């Protein structure tokens, strides 16, 4: 961490700042320029926030050099992390497709979709039981009943299941869930992240709608700091000024994340686009950019879907996409 | 709600759509143009999401006419809501200043700051006991111990207290808190909002960093739909491309919210700017734009603050701002 | 275009509005609902702006149904446009790589880079002679001297050249340029666009840093309305809150643009990312998403580049990328 | 400027970098930490761009300490600049209201509006003759004919006129214009800025829709570097994700700009909001935040306005706002 002092910084105040820093156990390294003085901090600065130091009157600016995340940092763990989900691998050169409906609705729907996506080659089944909806008057999901239907679909097909948690209070209900998803709106629900750090189960952490890449990594760090290092990151589109799509898929986040962290990175083209016809090209782009998986919404009757029908593929359309996914992952050297 | 059909919409599919709509208890009103057909929906469309209808192949676009919030809607409640906090009024022509440190640190700090801000004219005391921090390695707040210190400061000064909740699991600890704050990161923590809807206590709901005005109102609606109508909205800056300030204060949100809802609207200039010298001009702008209150960070020793020191005012600086706040609110016809 | 009237719209004022609309040569189609009245406009609404109609007190909201662009609209021209540049085709299934330095610096540099990129398989040569720089104190480009050096490189290699224009006043100097580029900052320099509409030469139109997809198409329409229909669109990254990359590449813009327009769409991964290591994955993503070409910065000595060195590839690195580009375009059914 | 080297930077490459820096006439100041080495650059770094230095492999990051603008910098010119427009002062404690229609339409309209706004207390008259329109099919303004009508309105009322230029090629037509406006879309039309730097006339420079505060100051610097130091900056709303207003007024830009530059700063509440009812509260907020003026759209018949009718005030509504403007500027210590 580097502190640039103000040009006309008062001597006594600078001393007060230095004292504060030394008391934090840091070594200081001064560099006196013509009109700027720089203090380099040597030691563990992970716990220091630039904002704290900027409270000192004499400080012009503070710049962090090292990333504030440790366990998620690739420099600490150069090899790609590979997550094992009931024997299915995700990460490294292993590519997985997670497919299923936005929300769990009926037993028939879940089992039918599960069988369809399995037949097309999906490796994991998704489905929402607890649904974060903007409006209190929208369908809120079947809750624990939905989790039961998901487990029946798992039993029928053998596909591991991925589903979203909305509160740590529900954690007991997720015992048989294979991958717990944290949605974009809860990416900085730190109390939830802390609880998920205490369990031993893969966590699919979606990037918040307007969270930076570094904030996503800090949220992963919350889970990892608690002891659970099985975190899968998911880029699902960010909020921008563009209104012709639901969100703007930040495809650059894939190579950028992979340079910063060893954790696997997947893409959710369905939520990013919000429009059916874009799911295929964005899936292809995700594979080409180096993603370790994709998450695709499939519904056996999109027009009757209780949510997000406009972005769901029919099982037939999904099957067509999967044929291309298989060839394309192979072309880019991934194993499905 | 208006549905515009595609130019070449197949008759049979349009019938299927109409049937679906009628089954939802809606009356349809058709309008056949040269190359567009429009279906107007008559009835309660609050529970319908445009995305659901767009799943139908024949639908070109869906436009909501009425806002999806009811209880928060000014059209349902033309007079300004006035919230009573231990006898202090907020809303209508009543203006309140909420002041105090970012985080509760020690008994001395809290009591000292509380006495100072009271002497300067603040009506409520703020202080964070549970702190949402981007990094798991940053100071996380004193938790329940912090709540006790806040209550001691309340006892010493008589100022009602405002403090943030991060999980519904902590709700029991908030029994003696006067106003419960929901932070920007939890604005769409719907499980928390639902729980807050069940209690009888004012809720200070901060706008999410990248939440639209309508999403803020929908989150207020979550609380109100549960039965708790004492919601205070807070604009605290949104995330944009501009990097010279911490956030971009959306001052237009004040008159826009006041036209859409009867709920009181306050502004947090400290978090919006993130820089001390901007607190005063942004406070003045908030009053001028019609806000019902402001929330200002004050610390007796900003350089030793455990968080956000760079935006905290000293008690002396706060006192100077308050002298102007008193004159300015009076000029704009508000009562403090 | 659809006009929704306010619930309590005064009869006389509605008549005034209707009169205004009829005087514009439009037919009106009324639809009276329970609490909303809708006026559908039949006829050419291209010249009407929603804002104009919203000036009427009785109007609640105005919604455009048809896109306001005509010549760029795919519905008017279902086949992909293919642009011919000195015999090289771009668009349809023809993919082109445009490569070269950010700015033209010396004869040696230009000829050397041109020979290198040609050897690696680039189809067109780029290089900036007039440079739009944020600071007046930065290198502003060699101007007309730079254009001469570009033409020498063209002579030496046979590669058609692409270079940016910054003012219609310079148009005479661009007689021998093969493709004229309009930079992001000039995407809405309408006076320039009008002049480019009068010539007969391909125009490479870059999307503005914060322009919507529809605004990009409207700018293309400015050129096309003047008679020059040879427009190539270029996605080069948009401005968002994310700071770890220079810009956020909006990869979804590729399939979205291709659904809305027949014009070819290329991607500039160098400017989007602003960092060397991301050029290759973003190039792959662009191909996978359906782009018709890419524009890549190559410099024979990036450390001595007078601008944008940090995103320029060396000729060797470019050659590696091109080997993958050839295989990948072939895999996705494109011809180079 | 500070350069942070990579941890494992190769000695020989570091030497190459140092040589490059010394050749630019800079003195280097090294600071060797445990795992980071920092090079501080002493001398004039205005012409150096961080991107250039980041092209060097050994560079981890580059941080500018001093702002890259000189003439606009308050540190070079601590007193507020006051611009004199035909004897009317703008800046320092002088507040001006610029009012008039979005576009010049007829002689009657211009003279009528001019007389009205003068009677209400406006100091300058605005009106667009050359209009930047998103669509080539929208009304493009009356051009030179419009300028004549503006001059007639000036003759009739004595109000100095402010009008927008869209191309340096039109400069001759602006001889009798008192203040030349550069619109948001042309804020980085550098060729135009350079030409405006050569004349001796106040320039009203509007902030680009997604330009940072520093970019605005760099564009002002373009004009000032040419010799014309009469630049008035205008905040007119930025583009964000929020859709309930046309733009998001960045009110914080007012105090932030005033801390960075000595140039006067005005606000355009009409374009920022795009909705009539918000013009008054945003005008009040602008005054309270310290703006030196506002620019308000007034039309004698908004429903017949050829553009932007929905945000124009009638002369009566403007008169009401002006009564409050007079009292409020006085309250905040400004002179009109």
UniProtKB/TrEMBL annotation, chains A, B, C, D:
- Spell out the SUPFAM superfamilies in the cross-references: Aldolase
Tell me which Gene3D superfamilies the record gives: Aldolase class I, Phospho-2-dehydro-3-deoxyheptonate aldolase, domain 1
Keyword terms, alphabetized: Transferase
**Which Pfam families does the entry mention?**
DAHP_snth_FXD, DAHP_synth_1
Q: Which domain of life is it from?
A: Bacteria
EC class of the enzyme, as a word = transferase
- What is the protein's given name? 3-deoxy-7-phosphoheptulonate synthase
Organism of origin: Blautia stercoris
């Amino acid at each position: 961490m580097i502190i640039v002092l103000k040009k006309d910084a008062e001597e006594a105040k600078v001393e007060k700042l230095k004292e504060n820093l030394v008391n934090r156990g840091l070594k200081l390294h001064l560099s006196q320029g013509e009109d700027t003085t720089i203090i380099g901090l040597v030691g563990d600065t992970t716990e220091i926030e630039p904002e704290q130091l900027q409270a000192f009157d004499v400080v012009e600016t503070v710049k962090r050099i090292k990333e504030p995340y440790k366990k998620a940092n690739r420099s600490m763990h150069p090899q790609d992390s590979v997550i094992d989900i009931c024997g299915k691998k995700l990460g490294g050169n292993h590519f997985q497709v997670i497919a299923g409906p936005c929300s769990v609705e009926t037993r028939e729907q879940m089992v039918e979709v599960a069988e369809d996506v399995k037949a097309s080659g999906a490796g994991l089944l998704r489905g929402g039981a607890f649904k974060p909806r903007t409006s209190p008057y929208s369908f809120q999901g079947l809750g624990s009943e939905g989790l039961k239907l998901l487990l029946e679909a798992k039993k029928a097909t053998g596909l591991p299941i991925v589903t979203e948690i909305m509160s740590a209070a529900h954690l007991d209900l997720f015992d048989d869930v294979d991958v717990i998803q944290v949605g974009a709106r809860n990416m900085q629900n730190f109390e939830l992240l802390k609880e998920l750090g205490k369990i031993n189960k893969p966590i699919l952490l979606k990037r918040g709608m307007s969270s930076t890449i570094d904030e996503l990594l800090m949220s992963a760090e919350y889970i990892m700091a608690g002891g659970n290092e099985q975190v899968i990151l998911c880029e699902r589109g960010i909020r921008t000024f563009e209104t012709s799509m639901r969100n703007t898929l930040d495809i650059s986040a894939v190579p950028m994340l992979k340079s910063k962290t060893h954790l696997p990175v997947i893409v959710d083209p369905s939520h990013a686009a919000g429009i059916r016809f874009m799911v295929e090209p964005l899936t292809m782009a995700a594979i080409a950019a180096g993603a370790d998986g994709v998450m695709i919404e499939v519904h056996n009757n999109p027009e009757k879907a209780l949510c997000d029908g406009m972005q769901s593929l029919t099982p037939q359309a999904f099957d067509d996409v999967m044929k291309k996914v298989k060839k394309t992952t192979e072309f880019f050297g991934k194993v499905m």
